[in-house]
Amino acid sequence: MGIRIIDLSLDIYHHTPVFPLDPHTGFITHQTIETTGYNITQIIMSTHVGTHLDAPYHFLSGGRTVDKLDLGKCIGPALVINMSNKKPKEEIKIEDFASFEKKIVKGTRILIRSDWSRFFPDKTYFFDSPVITVETAKWLAEKEIGLLGVEAPSVNSQDYMEVHKILLGKEIVVVEALTNLVQLTKEEVYFIVLPLKLKGLDGSPVRAVAIEE
After folding, report:
1. d(CA 28, CA 187)
2. What is the C-alpha to C-alpha distance for residues 190 and 94, in angstroms, rounded to an integer?
3. Which of 106, 135, 180, 190 is the Cys-Cys partner for 211 at CB 3.0 to 4.6 Å?
4. Integer Cα distance of 29 and 39 in angstroms
């Protein structure tokens, strides 16, 4: 039986677009084959550039840092919930999960397909995406899910402080700026998203993949 590996990660490159207050991204040539016999590049970037993962410390001063995350939440089966019918800035509500409610239990990994990544790198990508409401965040937190992944650059670009605190306060792994969920053909995939082991930091760019049999 064959498998498909679907890359769910955005490219990171020199001057990758980011939120206005975030650090800019830069690739700086340090050495080349012509100068030393090998290529090596210095990278300057945010912990939240491109497809990335939020650790609780991102919004909670006493929260777990990215190097201390439970990697078991980052690897395993994930539900793919199609919400590609959502319009710009439309709310993602509790009732949108109704047909999956029995499968949403403690530890469940959820990937929300919105197809919003098609707008990257346009400015609208950062501010007009469908949003997880405060009520939905509380509901998911009460369910004690393990991971929530979205195709938007943030789970909520308006009430981002409250929504992040609710999810990260329950140590839900938040993965943002996914892409290519349109390529998934099953409602359940094997999902892998691993952060760099950045000691004491608030998040990390990731390489996220889905595996389908």
Report:
1. 41
2. 24
3. 190
4. 8
Annotated active-site positions, please? 58
Convert 166-200 to b/e letters by CB count within 10 Å (16 or more is b): bbbebbbbbbbbbbbbeebeeeebbbbbebeeeee
Q: Which residues contact 95 (CB under 8 A, 6 or more apart)?
A: none
- Residue 74 neighbours by CB distance under 10 Å: 20
Name which of 196, 195, 193, 198 is nearest 210 in CA terms: 193
pLDDT in tens, 16-58: 999 999 999 999 999 999 999 999 999 999 999 999 999 999 9
- Inter-axis angle of helices 160-169 and 134-143, to 10 degrees? 0
4-9+47-212 CATH, one of 3.60.70.12, 3.40.50.970, 1.20.1280.170, 3.50.30.50 = 3.50.30.50
